[in-house]
Each structure stands twice: as structure tokens, then as C-alpha cells.
UniProtKB/TrEMBL annotation:
Residues 118-145 form a coiled coil. The keyword Isomerase applies. It comes from Dyadobacter luticola. This is Peptidylprolyl isomerase. Pfam families: Rotamase.
Length: 456
């Protein structure tokens, strides 16, 4: 069993979550009844899971591994989950919710709005979240188990040198051009006209509720929080600290049955009705109206701020990394001094080819190394409009791999190999701690060295 290949497939499990929802959301007809094809303790693998992973490769235009290899990766995933239960390894709900929100944010960006998602899938946002939540939780537990098993593995420079020396000179990889690019992002501000319009709409709804119309019905009709709207804006019980401060402060200032004034938060504008409090928890409904970031965003202040930062950086009064850390509203890159990382390896070096974000590719095409761009338009991952300045920090020429220029990449390979070896040793021992059963139709797979119908 080559665990390094298996672990490389694990990311497809996360990707196939959304792919599976997309296929099911399209209402395909004539799909055969799903069935269990393997079991690991109390965890089951369905034929649809295997097919979703296989089809994900096809959808991305890549050559899919054999189904036996994909099945083995799924079984490894379930083994990690089963052992996590035995070893009492868990993850906090806050981590799961954060990851779930990120995935939903990706879907909103892809479809344009929550409304479009609901129409595409024929399901409410709550139902979609419910379907994804357990999968996200399992994914986080698997990641934590992998970290528990191999997270303490370290490497030394001598190990990196030894690995490099072991590669035949005629087999050294060819490294294409790579670039380091940083950016500082400032979001646009919603225009006063649009804010006033949204506030007035909510005040009108408040007045209608005060005159006797049902708040829940108004939420169903008007609220743009589609997840709660179908339940009349009901947010269920929330613990203190769970909601953004503006919302929570307004809700807790109310008595049961009272409605708030219009409250602005990072999510939009809220009208809140408190239902009840219970110890450290409170139960509220709300109606949410969101600004239209495409039509109602003023970029004047963002451009002004970026122009000012650009001038300070150009005369070397302010370093780019410090400016990004203190000012950029892209928090993911701000913490790395504004440098944009390759998400596949976490390094701040991007391959200069067709895989690069087209907006970046064409932006630096007209720039020289060291240049700092004028403010240009940028679309945030949550779909909101922004501006950014781009710093073309460095560019490497295509070359054959060497220790001086490619130490980080080589170190990553050595570390990955060492972690995979630790995982492989763990799997050899763990197989005896869990029950594994595979259906006879996969008799030729020899998954984990098991013959068809073998059990452990």
C-alpha cells in the first residue's frame, strides 16, 4: 500500500462533496439505487461516493485513478475516522462551522447569490448546509488524525541534501518560471443612498409588523438570509458570543416580543425580534437585507487609501509587508505580508503559466519585477467588490532543480515522504484495531491487502 498516493487523493473527497451536491441538485433521472460497497467499523462507503470522486476527476479534465485506488483512499479515510472515535479525537464545532461557511462562500461566489444556489439545487440553504456539515466534520477529524500521527515529524538540512544527491542528474526536475506577487486589498464602501434605502425598507417592514402583520411571514417574503427565511427568520437559540457584536448587542437589549431598530453588521442590515432568553442563550428572528456590492459600492475611499499607501511604499517610507499587514482587507494574505500563496503547497511562489489566476497573469504581463501597480478592480471571495494594488516582487527563470534555488520545494518533498512513511506505519498497526469489510464485486482490488469479502 502506497500511503503517499492515497493521501494525495484525500483532497478529492472534499472536492467531491460539492460535486455530489451539484449532480444531485440537477435532478438527474434514472440513477440506480445506491448501495454499500465497504464498511469500516460503523462507517459505510456508498457506491455513489466512489462514483462522485471518479467523476470529479473527469469534470476537471484529469485522468482519474483506477476505482480500486479511489476505494482504497475512501477506506483509509474511514479508518482514520474509526480510529478517531476509538482514540476520542474530536474537533470543535467552531472549526466545522468556519470550514462550512468557507465552502458556502465558495458556492455563493460561484453561483452569484444564495438565491441562485437555492434555485439551482432545489433545496434551502439550511438543507444544503445540513448535507455538507457532517462531511465537513469528518474531513476536519481526518485532518486532525493525520496531524496527530505525523505532525511531529521533522527534517534536517542534511536529509534534504541527501535526498537531492540521490536524484540522478539526468532525472532532476525542470522548474518553470515562478513569481512572487503581493497585493493590498481595500473593499468598497456601500453608498449612503443604498444604505438609506435598505434602512427605510426595514423600517417599513417594522411598521407593518407593529400594525399586526406576522414578523415570520414578512421574513419569509423579504429576508435575504435564505437559510433562516424559510423558517420565518428563526435563528434558533444562540450562545452569547456566537453572533457578531452588533447583532448580539441589539438582540440582548430587547425584551421578549420587542423589535430592534435597524442594525448594520458586516452581513448587511437587520431587523431583529427577540423571542426569549434562556440562561446564556437567546432566541431571535431577523429580517436581513444585503447591499448590492456590484451596483451600490463606492470605490472612492478605497482608491484614495491605496494611492496613499502606494506613494509611501514607492518612496520607501513604508515597507509593503507592513502596509499589507496593517491595511489589507484580504486577511488571508495580510498575515503573510500581502504575498499570495499557492494553495496546493502553501508557498508564496506561483507558477507562471495557464494555471495562474488570469487576472494576476495579465496584470503582471505589463509589469516589471519590482513594480507596484495602480489601484485595480478586484472581486473578493465573498463576491464583494474591492480595489487592490499589486506588487511584482520577484521572478525566477526556468531551470533544472538545484539546492540553492529550490531548497523549499525539496524540503517539502522530503517532509511529505517522511510524514507518509509515518502514516504508512500507523496504518499497518491500525488495521488490527478496526473491522473492515469489502463487497465481493471489488474482488480484484486487493484493497489494503484484503481479498474480496475479507474481514479484519
Amino acid at each position: 500500500m502506497k500511503i503517499n498516493k492515497m493521501i494525495a487523493v484525500q483532497c478529492l473527497i472534499a472536492c467531491s462533496m460539492l460535486f455530489s451536491l451539484a449532480v444531485k441538485g440537477q435532478g438527474q433521472q434514472g440513477v440506480s439505487l445506491d448501495k454499500i460497497i465497504a464498511r469500516v467499523d460503523n462507517h459505510y462507503i456508498l457506491n455513489s461516493e466512489l462514483e462522485d470522486m471518479y467523476n470529479q476527476y473527469k469534470a476537471e479534465g484529469r485522468t482519474a485513478p483506477e476505482r480500486c485506488q479511489l476505494l482504497e483512499s475512501l477506506i483509509i479515510n474511514k479508518m482514520l475516522l474509526a480510529k478517531a472515535e476509538i482514540d476520542s479525537v474530536t474537533v470543535e464545532d467552531k472549526q466545522v462551522d468556519g470550514e462550512l461557511d468557507a465552502k458556502m462562500g465558495y458556492m455563493i461566489q460561484r453561483f452569484g447569490s444564495e438565491k441562485n444556489i437555492v434555485e439551482a439545487y432545489g433545496k434551502s440553504i439550511d438543507n444544503l448546509k445540513s448535507e455538507l456539515r457532517q462531511q465537513v466534520k469528518e474531513q476536519k477529524i481526518v485532518e486532525k488524525m493525520q496531524q496527530t500521527i505525523s505532525g511531529n515529524v521533522k527534517i534536517t538540512p542534511s536529509e534534504v541534501r541527501k535526498f537531492f544527491s540521490s536524484i540522478p542528474k539526468d532525472s532532476l526536475p525542470y522548474i518553470p518560471s515562478e513569481v512572487e506577487i503581493g497585493h493590498i486589498v481595500k473593499k468598497g464602501t456601500v453608498t449612503r443612498e443604498q444604505k438609506d434605502k435598505l434602512r427605510q425598507q426595514l423600517l417599513d417592514l417594522k411598521q407593518r409588523a407593529e400594525k399586526g402583520e406576522d414578523f415570520a411571514t414578512l421574513a419569509q417574503i423579504y429576508s435575504e438570509d435564505l437559510g433562516s427565511a424559510k423558517n420565518g427568520g428563526d435563528l434558533n437559540f444562540a450562545k452569547r458570543g456566537a453572533m457578531v457584536p452588533e447583532f448580539e448587542g441589539a438582540a440582548l437589549a430587547l425584551k421578549p416580543g420587542e423589535m430592534s431598530d435597524v442594525i448594520e453588521s458586516q452581513f448587511g442590515f437587520h431587523l431583529i425580534k427577540l423571542i426569549e432568553t434562556r440562561g446564556a442563550e437567546y432566541h431571535a428572528r431577523h429580517i436581513l437585507l444585503r447591499p448590492d456590492y456590484n451596483k451600490g459600492t463606492d470605490m472612492t475611499q478605497a482608491i484614495r487609501s491605496l494611492d496613499s499607501l502606494r506613494q509611501l511604499i514607492k518612496i520607501d517610507t513604508l515597507k509593503f509587508a507592513k502596509a499589507a499587514l496593517d491595511n489589507s482587507e484580504d486577511k488571508e494574505t495580510a498575515e503573510s505580508g500581502g504575498l499570495i500563496q499557492d494553495r496546493s503547497n502553501g508557498l508564496a511562489r506561483l507558477t507562471l503559466d495557464a494555471s495562474m489566476d488570469p487576472a494576476l497573469y495579465f496584470a503582471i504581463d505589463t509589469m516589471k519585477v519590482g513594480d507596484l501597480s495602480m489601484p485595480v478592480s478586484y472581486r473578493m471571495e465573498d463576491g464583494s467588490s474591492a480595489m487592490r494594488i499589486i506588487w511584482y516582487k520577484s521572478k525566477s527563470e526556468p531551470h533544472t532543480a538545484n539546492l540553492r534555488d529550490d531548497y523549499e520545494k525539496l524540503a517539502q518533498i522530503v517532509l511529505s515522504n517522511k510524514r507518509n512513511n509515518a502514516l504508512e506505519e500507523w496504518f499497518k498497526k491500525a488495521q488490527g484495531d478496526v473491522f473492515i469489510s469489502i463487497e465481493p464485486e471489488y474482488k480484484n482490488c486487493k484493497v489494503l491487502g484484503l481479498a474480496t469479502g475479507d474481514e479484519m
